[in-house]
Amino acid sequence: MDGLFTHRAYLPKQELFKQINSRLKTVDNLWGISTPDTVIELPETKSVTRTIELNEPNGNKKAEKQVVTFKRASHFNTANDQLTTASQWTTDQSIFSEYPIPVINGYSSLVNNRLIAKIDSLQANSNMDSSIIKVNYVSNSFDKIQNTNMAWLDNVQLMNNSIHVAGWHVTNQVATHPYHYIIVFDKTNNKELGRVQVTTPAYRPDVKQAYDLYNAEYSGFDVTVPLNINNLSTSSDELVVISRYSNDINGEGDYAEYWNPSIKLDQSNNSALDGFDTSADNTLRVTGWHATNLALTKPYHFVILFDQTTGREVGRQRVLNSVRADVQKVLPNIGNSLLSGFTADFDLNGLDLSHNLQAISRYSDDMNGEGNYVDSWFNPVKLMPNKQQNIGYLDSFNVSDGQLQVSGWHAADMTSLEKNHYLILFDNTTNTQILSQKISNTMRSDVAQVYSNIQNANWAGFNVNLGKENLLPGHSYSLVSRYSTASVGNGDSGLYTDYWFTLPQQNQQAYSIDNVFMTKDGLHLTGWMASDYSVVAPKAYLIILSNGQEIGRQKVSLTDRPDVANVYPTISNSLHSGFDSVVKVDTDRMGDTLQVLLRFTGSDDGNSNYYDQLSSAYSTNAGWFDQLMVDGQKVSFAGWHIDDRTIDKPFQYIILLKNGSEVARVKLNSNEQNLTRADVKQVYPYIYNSENTGFSGEITSPIDLENSNIQLIHRFTSSDDGNSSYVDYYSPVLKNKII
């Protein structure tokens, strides 16, 4: 059942209920249950929380949570799988109640440095976020007559056009000036660079212990001040952090402030080049980082490519800086250290990689990279290898199953630049590309052992199926292994290095007749036939010739022969080359020899657009008289006789000739004919009934045989009297002389 449904960690409500409904209906159907469709009410709730956090003097923290819960109802219609959601949230109680702050003797309660005895009630709504109100208790016991105004900066860090400031500021004037601001001021040009209100005072018991002043225990701050860099003259300006307590919510009005010691920014210019190399998309990729406060007033970052050999700029890219936490960790006082990373890609077209190329990182105040700028020049690099060895070898080329499978290796020093590998099939006859395929290399430790000084020798291998491709017979093809800087097409749009492998000529043919023997149904042939021409002439025929004349043919469906494919992998479709077929032949037209014509043709009748292979000749008949003895008028004999034309000739005769004329004949009985002759079968397995071809017996002449030339004929015949439709085998002439 689970296979019927989609399972995900999260689904939208509509889809979730739709799938649940589908599952329930499936269960009902399986169990034969009928459940009427209905509208299901789906209650939904949402809560908004106001947390009042009390920071008691003894260090305890207490929290009072006020919760307003909203509710609404959705409805799911099981008939049409539609979920309808109510648009309005409602609540029985929409007010956060007024909260009297608990009184602790000897302490005053403050929220954001302001004396507050209660938290006012508040109207809640469903769009409101939950909130936290922190209540701090400060001692009412402090030195009220002390006029100390003291501050300290624990940390000042410039980062990404802002300054992170942490420290503390104590003064009794906080009691009447509760609004605390941290301001960054440029003393050089007398301009404010930025300010931020301290809304969450930091607990500083160490400061309270040192300074018995009002609210000293909550005099800490830890804020980040955004800077208006446009108000900065130069990165060498003298900056100061001001801590201000004001009686005005915007930080103006009447105030008490403390000017911390001036800050001089780090003026160092820091950079590093991480990468300077070709990438897989026909570009030169330059990566690194450049961190310097000298760029504070120079917002435009460029990477410039300079040809040191020719002394001219060959490209520039405006870049967006990337995060480099590692750089910030080492250079915390550099404003752009966190966002100091860069990546620039330059089109390789038009670049001379044999030259010394140099990358420049530039921060400028001009959008085109000129104007006022600060540069970092990196060391020049010559990308082109000094050695450019290029060597390869084709281990195998296989088209036996109609798929073009190739394996080999190609090692080239230029792969340090050319990172894309393509295999291209090229027709030399028509001077055209047939196909190209981008491939991944394989490990070849054997190549690395021999060519250890070539760049990619250890990963120079390939073993790829290039798909079904009909190679035209008579054409000459090459396989091109190409390393390129370009990642599209066949790699010819970038820099590339080729190695050409010559493929076998597409004019190969081969065959084998494994078994051939005549049966009552015809000539039974097993074997295989393979030809590159099968690509254009895919229909296969077996044609039987006798004395050069056709006496039978059979169209065959070829079967798989892996053994042939192993031996002849370079012949197209050699895997599909096997046959096991019976060809019906006209025995009346059969001569002394047979040949098999193995034909691939493009026509259904096999008579045009064909390519032939002709077998060697097979005898259709043979015989021998092992014994021929004359004793008076009696002649004994033994031998064997085979002939493919005897299929329809069941009768056998021995005819006695004296001086060339018949004087007697005898019809052989079952004990005298079809005797087993395994020796004949071994020599002539392809002639009909060769295993049962022996004969023996004797014949008596009615006349005297002395001083005569004696000869026997063994005859197969279809007539009972032996006088029609026959095939004969003559014995040698025996001169019977009586002295």
How would you briefly describe this protein structure?
By secondary structure, the chain is mainly β. The chain contains 6 helices and 50 strands. The protein is elongated and about 170 Å long.
- CATH architecture level-2 label of the largest domain: Sandwich
**Which spans have pLDDT < 50 for at least 5 consecutive residues?**
1-9
Biggest sheet, spatial arrangement of strands: 3-2-1-10-6-7
Roughly what percent helix?
Answer: under 10%
| Category by helix and strand content | mainly beta
**What percent of residues are in strands?**
over 45%
Per the CATH scheme, the topology name of the largest domain is Immunoglobulin-like
Number of strands: 50
Q: Give the rounded overall mean pLDDT.
A: 92
**Radius of gyration from the CA trace?**
52 Å
Number of domains: 6
Separation of termini?
Answer: 107 Å
Q: How many strands, which pairing sense, and closed or not: the largest β-sheet?
A: 6 strands, mixed
Query: What's the overall geometry?
Result: elongated
- Output the CATH class name of the largest domain: Mainly Beta
Written description of the protein model:
With 739 residues, this protein is mainly β. The protein has six domains: 36-138, Immunoglobulin-like, CATH 2.60.40.4300; 149-264, Immunoglobulin-like (Sandwich); 269-382, Immunoglobulin-like, CATH 2.60.40; 390-502, Immunoglobulin-like (Sandwich), CATH 2.60.40; 509-619, Immunoglobulin-like, CATH 2.60.40; 621-736, Immunoglobulin-like, CATH 2.60.40. Helix content is 7%, strand content 49%. The chain has six helices and 50 strands. The protein has a six-stranded mixed β-sheet. Strands 13, 14, 16, 17 and 18 form a five-stranded antiparallel β-sheet that branches. Strands 21, 22, 24, 25 and 26 form a five-stranded antiparallel β-sheet that branches. A hairpin with an 8-residue loop joins strand 40 (593-601) and strand 41. The chain is elongated, with a radius of gyration of 52 Å. The termini are far apart. Residues 1-9 have low confidence and may be disordered.
